[in-house]
């Protein structure tokens, strides 16, 4: 029984993981070839989304934008539209910006070194390492939450994953395990094991290729790892909207590029005071973002006078839309769900 990290054979464990991947890799469309564009899009789609939910979105996105060229030629609005339903729209805005960078700075060819990939908008160390290792065989660990969990359990390592030094610490640890050949397979093995086997709760240790080497498993201490002392800070935020409608038309405006929900469409946030008398319905919706708990008040304001509606629209640069036109814009999820529910009745 292995009970001590000092005695662990790092490379041996790394090779076991890579070998396991050869015959157990998940069959995923972006793994059919080593095209960096496809790997890039898949990694960004899957940043906050499970494979099951992200797969359809990935396929639709790739069908419409099969290469950097099509993504670069598309308008930002269209890219946002193809991101609809995935949330965290700044990822789509960054994908679009990065496609412009690739054309301007790399002659339209996806960069083939970690340091260059890292220069692209929206690509952090994890994604750059994933692309560089899978597509260009660079020996760089793609360290994320999966790595923290799997490695801290294998070595029963109590290094605090909430500290700023965790990334470097687990990168160094992973490098000791990483075989010279097939670095991409090593990274993907940990991605797959982290999501399918060494799950946060109820890990399937009996199916794990390194269960004989895993100190946490062998000593019955899995629940102790990973060690995380600081909790992510979540703050409360209240928002107020007015869903201003006249017959089947309602008013919307595109948000700016700061704060939450960048470049998405929203309803008016204020109306003339006398319109408070026109409110026919109010609703409070709760919605969670990564670092914020939102409480969203939406007041439905029904305007009978076309002239009054149009004047307000023009003076405030709103857009008057019906449901079909709204469906072609991108809204934050709770606002979209709200207007869709009104049109169902
Ligand atoms: S044996 Fe269990 S705890 Fe250890 S790495 Fe495998 S799945 Fe994770």
Question: What does this 3D model show about the protein?
Answer:
The structure is a single chain. The chain has 345 residues and is of the alpha+beta class. It folds into two domains: 5-224, Hypothetical protein, domain 2 (Endonuclease III, domain 1); 235-344, Nucleoside Triphosphate Pyrophosphohydrolase. It contains 15 helices and six strands. It has helices at residues 10-24, 36-45, 51-64, 68-73, 76-82, 90-106, 114-117, 125-136, 145-154, 166-177, 183-197, 215-218, 306-315, 323-327, 333-344; strands spanning 235-246, 249-254, 265-266, 279-288, 292-302, 319-321. Strands 1, 2, 3, 4, 5 and 6 form a six-stranded mixed sheet that branches. β1 and β2 form a beta hairpin. α1 packs across α11 (183-197), α2 (36-45) crosses α3 and α2 (36-45) packs antiparallel against α8 (125-136). The mean pLDDT is 94. Residues 150, 153-154, 197-198, 203, 205, 208, 210-211, 214, 216-217, 222 line the site of iron/sulfur cluster.
The tally of strands reads: 6
How do the SSEs run, as a string of H and E?
HHHHHHHHHHHHEEEEEHEHH
**Main pleated sheet:** 6 strands, mixed
Shape verdict:
elongated
Report mean pLDDT, rounded to a whole number: 94
**Unreliable sequence segments:** none
**Which fold name corresponds to the CATH topology of the largest domain?**
Endonuclease III, domain 1
- Estimate what percentage of residues fall within beta strands: 5-15%
Radius of gyration: 24 Å
Q: Any guess at the CATH architecture of the largest domain?
A: Orthogonal Bundle
């Amino acid at each position: 029984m292995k009970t001590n990290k000092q005695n662990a054979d790092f490379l041996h464990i790394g090779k076991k993981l890579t070998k396991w991947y050869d015959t157990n890799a998940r069959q995923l469309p972006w793994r059919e070839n080593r095209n960096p564009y496809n790997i890039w899009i898949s990694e960004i789609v899957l940043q906050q989304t499970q494979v099951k939910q992200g797969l359809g979105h990935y396929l639709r996105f790739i069908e419409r934008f099969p290469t950097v060229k099509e993504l670069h030629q598309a308008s930002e609005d269209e890219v946002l539209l193809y991101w609809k339903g995935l949330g965290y729209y700044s990822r789509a805005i960054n994908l679009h910006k990065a496609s412009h960078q690739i054309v301007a700075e790399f002659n339209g060819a996806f960069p083939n070194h970690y340091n260059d990939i890292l220069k692209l908008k929206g690509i952090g160390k994890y994604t750059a390492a994933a692309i560089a290792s899978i597509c260009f065989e660079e020996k760089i660990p793609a360290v994320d939450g999966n790595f923290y969990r799997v490695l801290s359990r294998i070595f029963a390592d109590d290094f605090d994953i909430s500290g700023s030094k965790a990334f470097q610490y687990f990168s160094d640890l992973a490098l000791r395990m990483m075989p010279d050949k097939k670095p991409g397979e090593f990274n993907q093995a940990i991605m797959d094991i982290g999501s399918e086997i060494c799950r946060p709760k109820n890990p399937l240790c009996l199916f794990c290729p390194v269960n004989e080497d895993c100190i946490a498993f062998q000593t019955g201490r899995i629940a102790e790892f990973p060690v995380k002392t600081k909790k992510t800070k979540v703050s409360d935020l209240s928002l107020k909207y007015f869903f201003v409608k006249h017959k089947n038309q309602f008013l919307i405006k595109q948000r700016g590029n700061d704060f939450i929900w960048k470049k998405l469409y929203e309803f008016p946030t204020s109306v003339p005071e006398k319109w408070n008398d026109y409110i026919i319905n109010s609703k409070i919706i709760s919605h969670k973002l990564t670092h914020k708990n939102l409480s969203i008040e939406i007041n439905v304001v029904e305007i009978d006078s076309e002239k009054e509606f149009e004047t307000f629209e023009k003076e405030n640069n709103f857009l008057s839309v019906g449901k079909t036109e709204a469906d072609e814009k991108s809204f934050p999820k709770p606002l979209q769900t709200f207007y869709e529910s009104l049109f169902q009745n």
